Amino acid sequence: MIKIALIGITAVLIAIQFKNTKPEYATYISISACLLIFAIGVTKLTGILGTIEKIQSYISISPTYLEILIKMIGITYVAEFSSNLCKDAGHNAIAGQIELVGKLTILSMSMPIVISLLDTIKEFLA
Length: 126
Prior knowledge:
This is Stage III sporulation protein AD. InterPro entries: Spore_III_AC/AD. It holds the Pfam family SpoIIIAC. By secondary structure, the protein is mainly α. It is about 90% helix and about 0% strand. The protein has two domains: about 1-45; about 45-125. The protein has helices spanning about 1-20, 25-45, 45-60, 65-90, 90-125. The longest helix has about 35 residues, at about 90-125. It is elongated and about 70 Å long.
């Protein structure tokens, strides 16, 4: 985490130097730092996936549900990352649309789980 914080702080300090004279360079530096931090974050996912597999071995959960959960986490991360890049570049409308589509995608992916939950409740009530 310290490495990520140092990358972020360094990028901000460099971008500040360019902001008044060459604002496009500040944007490029910001986007580059974000991509580097994103790449580091993706490498951390292997530990999370291992933990999810261990949880699956302890309790009987359908692998389909865990796959959906992992996809939702990925979509959330990519949507937030993309949105923040757009906001940083000053394109708030595009950022808002990315966030909206990310939320709608997650909602549509969760529908099979909601239906399964309702079926389970229906079985208990019957």
